[in-house]
Structure formats: structure tokens, C-alpha cells
Task: structure prediction
Amino acid sequence: MPQIVPVILCGGSGTRLWPRSRAAMPKPFLPLVGDTTLFEASLARCPADLGFSAPVVVTGTRHLDHVEAQLSGAPGATVIVEPAARNTAAAIALAACRLPDDAVMLVCPSDHHIGRPDVFAEAASAAAALASEGWLVSFGIEATAPETGFGYLKRGDAIEGTTGFRTAQFVEKPDLERAKSFLADGGYAWNGGIFAFRVGDFMAELSAHRPEIAAKVREAVEKGASDSHRFHPDAATFAAVPSDSVDYAVMENTSRAAMVPADMDWSDIGNWQALHDALERDESGNSVRGSGEAELVDCRNVLVDSDGPRVSVIGLDNVIVVVDGNEVLVTTAEGVQKVGKLNGAVNQ
Amino acid sequence: MPQIVPVILCGGSGTRLWPRSRAAMPKPFLPLVGDTTLFEASLARCPADLGFSAPVVVTGTRHLDHVEAQLSGAPGATVIVEPAARNTAAAIALAACRLPDDAVMLVCPSDHHIGRPDVFAEAASAAAALASEGWLVSFGIEATAPETGFGYLKRGDAIEGTTGFRTAQFVEKPDLERAKSFLADGGYAWNGGIFAFRVGDFMAELSAHRPEIAAKVREAVEKGASDSHRFHPDAATFAAVPSDSVDYAVMENTSRAAMVPADMDWSDIGNWQALHDALERDESGNSVRGSGEAELVDCRNVLVDSDGPRVSVIGLDNVIVVVDGNEVLVTTAEGVQKVGKLNGAVNQ
Result:
């Protein structure tokens, strides 16, 4: 079994879980499901006793304080501090350039929820085995609904002697009709942005398909400087790196794309309804989280999340109520898609 | 035209507008509709230039500070401070015992909204004229819905030469079916607790039907003491006064009950939906009040009332959101009847 180095990507800052998630305290660093934050849970899924090395966290200066405050569960972790945001191809390349060619990277977002970490670990092991044989491996997350917010992976031929498959096609976010046909077909999985790559193979593919990204990142790392467990790529060089996703830059171009199936109760917690779906509910389908008290009368499938004030709700179904500091959000389950466009979310 | 003395009753403390209305800051003293409080508006409806004397306010010790803080619009007002709550018969009798027998009292609750004060003034004038002829007059408020929360007045024969009618019957709060039949019949009006009495007649009827109330209140006033514009009935004597409503004690027993019709856009603001109905709405039927900002997306007939935090609402119809200090209330229009039973309302 190769050594697996978790590469935890900690970038971006969504507005879809506003007002709980804010620019100043984004989603990965909040204890949205259970007592640990999504970032802490990402680290905890890759423990040493399952063969994982100390993780490499790639993050920006804006999130650095949050990362370091929540890093205690991952001894030996290092942090690569991006001087600017250049999307996932560059972020992964930064980690790759600091690792030996034969190491296997397990690239994980830090803001997803995985309900079955045991299945994650099994899939990670299978993906790493494939990666060490030269495949560029995506986790193919079992699709359980016709989601239009995710990209899909089309399953190709089985790879003999493994649980993996070739990836026949990367499909961008579909419309509802196509999403439904994918679900009915059964041969499609969600692309959750979890990958396993042998470092040398990843850099070779990146150099082949996006030579400028590969070259500039290499240069930024060569000119970079360490500071205790932190590594700072050269800012001026990194600023010149083209911004591209790993899907576009590498996965859609390589001839060695593979996928391992993973039915691991995954959620990107991409909006308030997704969070509600990931939480435990009472017999009426209601969930209460946060530090505030709640009283629900004649309610079904209501989520209340308050950071202090008591929330009393009467007579509502499929509604989400969030209280965070000076903001109160009340939305239907369908309305959650519009949260990111609210004045409060846009002008924070 | 006789002199009309407004007798403003300022008692009780409901829980149906919780959390905005609280035990410590009850409904009459809040600016629920427009910029003035319901109490201030009650005073303002009885100005000197329409022939009203300075008002007499009857209130309890608990509300005294609020009353005095909001009394500046009524020069010459006096305040009778009830040492205990003994319902409306005793409260009105307290005022009566301090007025000359031939004065006409216009008894008004202080927690109702009247959208057309001009109609109120006309009805008051008509009621006072009838009262000065010996009638005990109720305002018969035009019923506009089959309300089950109000008592009703059944209209009897017209009183010749006036706009008034004999009151054929006092009907207690009906069930929905009866309320609908009253509305269809057209001969029923809401009893809003607004009355005109000649002082001597009121005390004579009270003495006839509830002699103990009349006697004990007289004694409490005789043994009472003035303190600037305040009058304090004797506490020990007043404590012994039987508690009864003016409807039960006097109106249902007198043979001289009359009513004047009043179509004055009246509301008792008896719950959050009633308040919403009394407020101005935008083209989507939404209302925003309070000092907090609000953003309503895809909403219809939503009321937002916040004392500070911004409230963002998506996709809801017929819902009321109230933010007050450490309490947040979210209820359907139908749910407003249950507000008073919420833990927050009960345990305040």
C-alpha cells in the first residue's frame, strides 16, 4: 500500500449558508453537523492508523487563522498559504510540488459532510491503489437524487482486479431532465471533488495539458519560503498562475481517468436544505441546532438554527429559520437557492 | 350637548402579541399602528375642540409609569390608580364616583385601533346625546367578518329622533356558525367595549344590579387620597370589591341599553394577524414595521416586525415574523391564536 498524503483544500467562501456562514467565518470552520467543524472532520477522516500521512492543508491568507485554530487534531500537518486564489488545479499542484513523485495525494475539499467515514476510508484505499498504478482517480459519489448542482461522472469499463472503473465522461452540471435521466440510468455518479493522484502522474498530466500552470506553480514553490509548519509560495510568481479547476485542466483531458464508487452518505452541505437533510430529526422531521432554545408547535420538517435568541415557530412545514447575530433568515426549502443573493449575503 | 369625559381603561396585559407586547411593556403602550401608541391614540381621539373634557385614565400600579410617560398629549388628565384589578365594572365606577352625576362618561379601552377617528367622534357625540337622555349606550361596531373572539350586540328598535337603537340582546362570543349567521343577518354588531353613560344613571344601575360593587367602590373613593393628578382609592376597601365586567354587571341587566352604529375601521389588534390587517401593505400584501431592515423575496402577505436585526424572508405566504430582543417568533396567520400559549409568552 502506498503512503497516502491527505491534501485538504480550504478555499473559497460561499454565501449559500448565510447568515451562519459569513465571509469572516466561512462554512469549513463551523460545526454544522455534530460538534466538530467540517474542516476538523475532514482531517479526522484521514487518521494515521489507517495509513494516512500528516495532511497538507492548502488555504489562503484569509482563512489561515481559522485553519491554524482547528489544526490540533492533525499532528505534523503542514499548511501551504496561497498568496492568491487560483482555483483547484494550482492548489493541488502546490501540494504536489512539495511531495515526492511516488507519493499518492488524496485531494479532499474541507467543507463537505460524510456520514460514513468507514466507507470513505475504504474508497480512499481503493483510489490510492489505483493511483499508484497510474490512474487519476475521482470518487464517484452514489447519486441519490437528480441534483442539478453537481457535475456527474459517467461510469466506463471496470478496471480488472479492482473495485474501480474507467471514467467514460465528465458531465457538467445538468438540467433537471438530464439529472433525472442520469439517476434512472444508474451509470452516473456525482463528482464530489475528491481525487487520488500519484504526484508524478498528476504533474505530468498538468504539464501536458496546462503547461503554464505546472511551470509557474513549480517556480512559485522553488522561490517560496517556509515558516515553521507553513509554506509560502512566491507571491509574484503565483499571481501569474492561470486560474483553472482540476476538472477542466486535468481530469477531462487525461486518458487515465478512473473512478471508485463511494456510497458514503455524502453532502456538500451546499445550502440550508442540504444541511437540514444531513442533521438528525425528531419524529416530526424537525431539527434544532445552535445555542438558542426553540419551541416548535404544529411544525413539520422545520430547521431552527439560532446562536442565542429563543425561536418560537407555529404551524409551518418545510421552513428554515436561522438567527445569527444581527441577521434573521426565514426561508422555505425551495427558497434556499436564493439565500446567496439576499442583500445580507451579498453585502457582507 | 353635555360635557363628555373620556374614561380611558388601561388594564390587563395580554400575551397574544408576544414577544412585542410583554408583561413589562404591554400592548397599549406600543406604537403598533403608525407612530403613536394605542394609548396615545385613544387620548388623541378625544380632543378638547370636539367637546371632550380632560380624560380620566384608570390603570393599575403596574402600568402607571407607562401611562404617565405617554400622557403629555392630554393636558389636565387625571389618573386613577387601581390598587388591584377588579375588572371593568369597578374601574368605570371608580371614575364615576369622582365625577358629577350629570357628566357623561365615554368609556374607552386603550388598546384598540380605530382607523377612522372622525366616525368615532360622530358616534361618540350621538352616544353622549343618548346617554344624557338616560340611555346606557354601547358602540355597535359594524361586523365585517364572522369573528368568534368578540361579543355581539343585537340591534333592536330605532330610538326615534336619533341614530341609535335599543340593544335587543347582548350575545357572548359565538361559535363560528353563529358568528356567520349574525353576519348574514346584518342585525348584529360587535361589542367593542366602548360605552357612554350619564354618571348618575350608571351608578343607579350598578347599585340596582351589583349593589356591593357600587357601595364598595364608593367607600374606596371616599377613603382614597389624591397625589397631584393621581387619585389612589383605599386599597383595603377596593380589594373587597367583587370583580365583574360592565357587560355582566350592568349592560345585560339594564332596561335602558342602547347602541349607536359605528363603522370606524376598528380593530382590537387582538393578535398578530389582526395587527397585520390594520397595517398598510405593499402591492404583494407585505408589511414591514419596527426599526429593523427587512428583505422579502417571493413573499405574499408577510408581516415582518423587528426591533433591530435584519430579517430576510424567502418564499413564504401568510406568515408573520417578529424579532424582539431575545425572542424570535415565526407563525402562520392561522397559528397566531396559539402565540399566547408559547413558553416564551407564558413564562415571561
User: Anything to note?
Assistant: The CA atoms of residues 11 and 112 of chain A lie 13 Å apart.
